[in-house]
Amino acid sequence: MNKYLVWLPALMVLGAVMYKPVKEATESKLVNKNISVEVYKGSSYTSGIYNNTSAQVQIIVEKVNTKGQHTIVWDKTLDSKYVNQYPTAENALKQNITIPGINEKKEYLVVHYTLTYNSKGSELQMQDGTIVKDNSSGKVDISIRLKDKLAQKEVGKNHFRYMLSFSIHTNIAALQRF
């Protein structure tokens, strides 16, 4: 019996030494996530057919936990502008967003955006999104693009059947296509 009691202090010391690293490894750290959003036009839109076509952008950032619960943590709608009034990529509208208190092990962010195009009262909404994981910052570019030839053909017929192409460019490997 005394033989086993000799090992008890050694086991207690070993347990105390192992406790702190194990506790730190399993604890969740709260961090701030930084997201940079840029909105710009993908073409010059100088043709007269675009004079009556506007676009509005709504950006929503949601926090998603491991249970799949979504919580909106940031929401902004940019004023509607004619597509030819949006700046080029070099002069993009920029919005830096900081979301505090994200639990890296149990939560991640999803950036959704909705582009609403309006041409003479006819509206078309397009939605897209990006998941932000693993890094403390990310960049989302929103490019407003209308395919010129199809737009000319359809606007001439007074229809709003634009074939739209949107692109989200990510410059951080941690951003994944949603």
What is the structure about, briefly put?
The chain is α+β, with helices and mostly antiparallel strands and 178 residues long.
List SSEs in N-to-C order.
Answer: HEEEEEEEHEE
Alpha plus pi helix count: 2
Number of individual domains: 1
CATH class: Mainly Beta
Largest sheet report: 5 strands, antiparallel
Which regions have little confidence, pLDDT < 50, spanning 5+ residues? 148-178
| Major beta sheet, strand line-up | 3-2-5-6-9
Q: Average pLDDT across residues?
A: 75
Taken as a percent bin, the fraction of beta residues is over 45%
Principal-axes geometry comes out as rod-shaped
Helix content: 10-25%
Cα separation of the termini? 62 Å
Determine the structural class based on helices, strands and strand pairing. alpha+beta
Rg computed from alpha carbons, rounded to a whole number of angstroms: 25 Å
Instruction: Give the strand tally.
Output: 9
**In the CATH hierarchy, what is the architecture at level 2?**
Sandwich
Task: Tell me the layout of helices and strands.
Elements: H1 2-26, E1 30-41, E2 53-65, E3 70-82, E4 93-103, E5 107-119, E6 122-132, E7 137-144, H2 148-156, E8 168-169, E9 175-177
Parallel strand pairs: 1-7
Antiparallel strand pairs: 1-4, 2-3, 2-5, 5-6, 6-9, 7-8
Can you describe what's shown?
The chain is 19% helix and 48% strand. The strands form two sheets. It has a five-stranded antiparallel beta sheet with strand order 3-2-5-6-9, with no helix packed on it. A four-stranded mixed beta sheet has the order 4-1-7-8, with no helix packed on it. Strand 5 (107-119) and strand 6 (122-132) form a beta hairpin. The chain has one domain: Sandwich (Immunoglobulin-like). The protein starts with a helix and ends with a strand. It has 178 residues and is α+β, with helices and mostly antiparallel strands.
